[in-house]
């Protein structure tokens, strides 16, 4: 057994049906955790959980709209009842809307605020309530929030993402302080992923090119690579392994931290 071994831990990953969320859930399961994929995409999420189970993991799916408090109450209750507890919560669900500031659509910005900021805060709220002493799980644990390199750099066309993911960083630090001061026993950290060629990352490249910021989607990707000292895009496993670290006992004295997983882009 190593400090990265998560055998016996119960984990929830929001936005876990696909993309980075599924990669995180898979990595947590590979480390021994029982994982619950939480997402609005019921069919995709159920299929992903079934595939993980077929590969030998302990996995299941629960419907969750992270902007809906009643959904959080029900989902966390279901997870604790079905798995016997809750030790790890990964607040990964997020949306990105590409737009120049002069063209910001208030409705789209509110949607980003709802998912990226409110959704993360509700996750922390209900994670704390379950994991703190006297809660339904009551054994402490770890919360990992997913921010973005967008919180640390000035890149055109992503003001909404930069603002909301910067908020995730600040919320993480306040949550870590409250947990420590109130004796919750829950460590709270965040990661800043760089650009990863998931569906969301590819969409960003296409949309920034469509805004005239780059000659083509390939040029947009090339600009990101040029800004990255390690000279490549991230892979889902790069981000997922960092989440496993922060969720594990290897990070037992780490809280209130933001871990860049961006190949050096945001330094």
Detailed description of the structure:
The protein has 267 residues and is an alpha/beta fold. The chain has two domains: 10-194 and 235-256, NAD(P)-binding Rossmann-like Domain (Rossmann fold), CATH 3.40.50.720; 195-233, no CATH class. Helix content is 46%, strand content 14%. The protein has a seven-stranded parallel sheet with strand order 3-2-1-4-5-6-7, sandwiched between helices. α4 runs parallel beside α5 (159-182) and α6 crosses α7 (217-226). The radius of gyration is 18 Å and the shape is globular.
Strand content: 5-15%
The number of distinct helices, counting runs of at least 4 residues, comes to: 8
Rg value: 18 Å
How is the largest sheet built, in terms of strand order?
3-2-1-4-5-6-7
Summary of the model, kept short:
The chain has 267 residues and is an alpha/beta fold. The protein has helices at 19-30, 42-54, 69-83, 106-131, 159-182, 199-210, 217-226, 236-247, and strands spanning 10-14, 34-39, 59-63, 88-91, 141-146, 186-193, 258-261.
Protein topology:
Blueprint: E1 10-14, H1 19-30, E2 34-39, H2 42-54, E3 59-63, H3 69-83, E4 88-91, H4 106-131, E5 141-146, H5 159-182, E6 186-193, H6 199-210, H7 217-226, H8 236-247, E7 258-261
Helix pairs in contact: 1-8, 3-4, 4-5, 6-7
Search tags:
alpha/beta, globular, Rossmann fold
């Amino acid at each position: 057994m190593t400090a990265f071994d998560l055998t016996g831990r119960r984990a929830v990953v929001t936005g876990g049906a696909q993309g980075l969320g599924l990669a995180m859930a898979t990595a947590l399961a590979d480390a021994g955790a029982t994982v619950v994929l939480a997402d609005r995409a019921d069919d995709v999420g159920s299929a992903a959980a079934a595939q993980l189970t077929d590969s030998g993991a302990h996995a299941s799916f629960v419907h969750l709209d992270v902007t809906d408090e009643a959904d959080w109450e029900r989902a966390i209750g279901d997870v604790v009842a079905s798995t016997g507890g809750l030790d790890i919560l990964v607040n990964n669900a997020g949306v990105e809307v590409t737009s120049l500031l002069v063209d910001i659509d208030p409705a789209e910005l509110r949607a980003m605020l709802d998912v990226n900021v409110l959704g993360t805060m509700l996750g922390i709220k209900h994670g704390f309530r379950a994991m703190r002493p006297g809660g339904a799980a009551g054994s402490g644990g770890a919360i990992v929030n997913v921010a973005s390199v967008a919180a640390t750099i000035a890149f055109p066309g992503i003001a909404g993402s930069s603002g909301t993911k910067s908020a995730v960083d600040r919320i993480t630090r306040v949550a870590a302080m409250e947990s420590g001061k109130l004796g919750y026993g829950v460590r709270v950290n965040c990661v800043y992923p760089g650009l990863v060629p998931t569906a969301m990352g590819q969409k960003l490249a296409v949309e920034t090119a469509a805004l005239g910021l780059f000659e083509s989607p390939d040029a947009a990707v090339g600009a990101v690579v040029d800004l990255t000292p390690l000279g490549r895009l991230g892979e889902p496993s790069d981000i997922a392994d960092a989440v496993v670290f922060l969720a594990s006992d290897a990070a037992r004295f780490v809280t209130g931290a933001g871990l860049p997983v961006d190949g050096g882009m945001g330094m």
